[in-house]
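The protein record passed on for reference:
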Amino acid sequence: MKHQSKNFLFGKDEPEISVDPGIKRQLLGYNDSMMLARVTFEADAIGYTHKHPHSQVAYVESGVFDFTVGDETSRLQAGDCAYIPPNVDHGARCIEAGVLLDIFSPAREDFLS
């Protein structure tokens, strides 16, 4: 296995990296096959439309988001999820400050460099 996180990761100890204005990402466990990222958004922050070859599930831990997958947009709040197939355009606008848990398969190697 090329990449693997520690077995135990403590949120208070793991670095948060600023990825866009009002958006910070924290990696909370991964190997080559999968990855969990905790992404914190300030209100009005925009996760710009993009695509990647990974499958993704975005779970809304808190806050309110307008989430777009392909040509569909839906308002998601705590407890809701979006599934993003590989190579499909997607993005999110944060309506009320919150946190997304993003699960990727396989792992996002670009997040590890």
